[in-house]
Amino acid sequence: MSAPTIDQPAATPTATATGPGPVREGAFGNARSLVCRECRHEVELGPHYACPECFGPLEIAYDFPAVTREEIAAGPRNIWRYKALLPVPTDIEQSPNTEPGFTRLLKATNLGAELGIDNLWVKDDSTNPTNSFKDRVVACALSAARELGATTFACPSTGNLANAVAAAGARAGIRTVVFIPSNLEQPKQVNSAIFTDQLVAVNGNYDDVNKLASEIAGEEEGWAFVNVNVRPFYAEGSKTLGYEIAEQLGWRLPDQIVIPVASGSQLTKVHKAFQELIALGLVDDKPYRVFGAQATGCSPVSIAYKAETDAIRPVKPDTIAKSLAIGNPADGVYVLDICRESGGAVEDVSDDEVRAGIVLLARTEGIFTETAGGTTVAVTRKLVETGQLDPTLETVVINTGHGLKTLDAVSGIVSAAATIEPSYDAFRATGLGA
User: Fold this and answer.
1) CB 230 within 8 A of CB 165
2) Which of 146, 180, 122 is nearest to 18 (CA)?
3) pLDDT, tens digit, 9 for 90 and up, residues 82-109
4) pTM for this one?
5) Which is nearest to 262 in space by CA: 214, 329, 190?
6) Which residue in 134, 144, 2 sits closest to 60, CA to CA?
């Protein structure tokens, strides 16, 4: 895997504002432009997400300054400690935001013993402000929306993103509208509606909701859809997971990492973060293997990986892992490239295995994960059993959200061990005594 090129400093082009008013100098930090991931054509920074030359997806290109470990360590204990590596202004801490990140990296000895992995870590993002990693990406999207003069902050979502957008919008004092599939888990609906009175439930799956959001973004002035017209900025927030893992490991990269795949953006950006850290000399260059995790009921990337093809055929989601239920993943092909190039893989597991993964993580490490985390744990087990993951190498698995959001997934398989009368004899009858 080759490291990214870090160019010499250059002036940041003026962006086209989403709303009224000019974009201030330094609004996007050390970001230089948007660059096409296919043809490498560069366009000015702004609310753009498709290349005008080939319609490929755009991402952020930077002119990074020299950055030291000491400078990062002196920063706040949230994602803004990495602000020099993100498309945000140097005064980002002064803007009201949820200040996500710098979540715990736990040595998972008990889970490792259960899975047969010698050196296992869990990056637990369930402790973010709205209990999922989406707070990271939303914080970067909110900064871009604010700098571009947006008047409405919005998103299509499978749940966690809606929670994060609604909360961040409330904190920032900006009008917020979030769109979700109408069959979304009730806790996730409540977790959004508590922050905004403009929650819109759409009859359809996530891909239907996303299509509607794209149409609205093309017609309405001043709307910043975090994962549509400001998606390049939004996606960069996922890099902070990679930065934190490396820093928390003592400024080194793990040998293997297992990441859940919905759109695929998180996996591609964690890989981008590792490559940037190598290029900046913040970590030693070393090989690492990247693995993607999907639920069988929505596993278009895993299907393509196993078929040894680059063509990802959209599927209709049918899984309890609704936060991963994106049938037409925007970054799927890039996930395939990274996993194959790194010597990793993409694997999928059944809903029953997802449930078992949730329970296993809870009962070994005291972490209650949602269905995406259950998918990742279950896939890790399967990767070991099939010989795709080396159990002797240091491995990190990412838990992206909290299980209180998906209680229905496990409510039928866990319950009270016994219901008894309030007497010692009744307790003894259960056989639970010493």
Assistant:
1) no
2) 146
3) 999 999 999 999 999 999 999 999 999 9
4) 0.93
5) 329
6) 144
